[in-house]
Design goal:
The chain has helices at 3-15, 28-37, 43-56, 60-65, 68-75, 82-97, 104-108, 115-126, 135-145, 154-166, 173-186, 204-207, 264-270, 329-347, and strands at 225-235, 238-243, 254-255, 274-281, 285-288, 293-306, 314-318. It is α+β, with helices and mostly antiparallel strands and 348 residues long. Helix 1 (3-15) crosses helix 11, helix 9 (135-145) packs across helix 10 (154-166) and helix 9 packs across helix 11. The N and C termini lie far apart (73 Å).
């Protein structure tokens, strides 16, 4: 075992995290669920979702038997909803196959699972000697070996994978893998705690005073803005939701219908099968994505007539029940505002 791996294993046994709800198990379903939820999401945010998800779907078979709506309802607020859709699709594939795949190559073939996630699942569930390279681990290895550049660049990522594979110990792979994750999450952070690091003596970035420069940040680009109009169609205490197409932003979730800002009445009549007689612009809501910012203009509309055509993808629901549906964060924000408006109106 290399000095690097030995130091990490010793540190993990003394100082690493051992009380997370997905630790202490070999159940590939629970490990897989945690690894998917932890992608681009902090541990503190994941824990309540993980526990709630397992209460509802305690086994992989229970998840496979659920509807996509049920899965996305529990995922609502966690973000990156393709993860939830892929998790559901993969669960169905595993149940159809009869057993969970036993190695990282087979695990990676499941929907939504990349190379690093597959390796982590294989290491923790089956003890496979496989290298991981999530965002935290990239930062650890880039600093330790002094690999400059942005980790998203092909050459930089290739160099990091090479190092990750070279460092793999022949034993205690689970402890080593968890140590890498914990080191990157607790000590080798943006402002690193180098004095507490078990491998600080060999760290090139520390020796050269470059911990602030390594790894290099993602090249910054001005984010484009997109403006949309959402319709809050109210009729006798109910409001209309529209299911967003998948794949796509918030695919599979329920949202307010989008409409051309200058053609609201016609859109309602032609597409949403209802007539409206008033429109009130509410405060705009902004929501950030990786590649653009979304500016949402909610229009509160009173419906005078609606045709019950049973259209797929459209749902009239009591306003008070919207929060329990599978909805994205901006919809929840607007519903909370709408409830405040209605409450104030009732008091007047």
């Amino acid at each position: 075992m290399s000095k690097f791996a030995s130091a990490l294993v010793r540190w993990q046994k003394r100082h690493g995290r051992r009380d997370l709800p997905w630790q202490g198990t070999r159940d590939p379903y629970r490990i897989w669920l945690s690894e998917v939820m932890l992608q681009q999401t902090q541990v503190s945010a994941v824990i309540p979702y993980y526990e709630r998800f397992l209460r509802r779907f305690p086994t992989l078979e229970a998840l496979a038997a659920a509807t996509e709506d049920e899965v996305l309802q529990l995922w609502s607020g966690l973000g990156y909803y393709a993860r939830g859709r892929n998790l559901h699709a993969a669960a169905k594939a595993v149940v159809a196959a009869g057993s969970f795949p036993k190695n990282s190559d087979q695990i990676e073939a499941l929907p939504g699972i990349g190379k690093s996630t597959a390796a982590a699942i294989a290491a923790f569930a089956f003890g496979e000697r496989a290298a991981i390279l999530d965002g935290n681990v990239k930062r650890v290895l880039a600093r330790f070996f002094g690999i400059a550049g942005w980790p998203g660049e092909k050459a930089v990522e290739s160099a990091l994978w090479e190092r990750a594979n070279q460092l793999l110990p022949k034993k205690e792979i689970e402890t080593y893998t968890q140590a890498l994750m914990d080191l990157g999450a607790t000590l080798c952070v943006r402002t690193p705690k180098c004095d507490l690091c078990p491998v600080n003596r060999g760290c090139m970035a520390r020796k050269e005073g470059k911990t602030a420069q390594i790894p290099a940040p993602r090249p910054r680009k001005a984010l484009p803005q997109k403006a949309v109009t959402w319709l809050l169609l109210l009729d006798r205490g109910q409001i209309l939701l529209e299911k967003r197409p998948a794949p796509g932003i918030w695919g599979g979730l329920w949202s307010f219908p989008e409409a051309p800002a200058k053609d609201v009445e016609s859109h309602c009549r032609r597409v949403l099968a209802c007539e409206v007689n008033s429109k009130e612009a509410l405060d705009t809501v902004e929501h950030g994505f990786t590649h653009f910012r979304l500016r949402i203009q909610p229009l509160l509309c009173q419906v005078t007539r609606r045709r019950n055509l049973g259209q797929p993808g459209l749902l009239w629901i009591d306003v008070d029940d919207v929060r329990a549906a599978a909805i994205p964060t901006p919809v929840r924000t607007i519903v909370n505002r709408l409830s405040g408006i209605r409450a104030a109106s009732t008091r007047e």
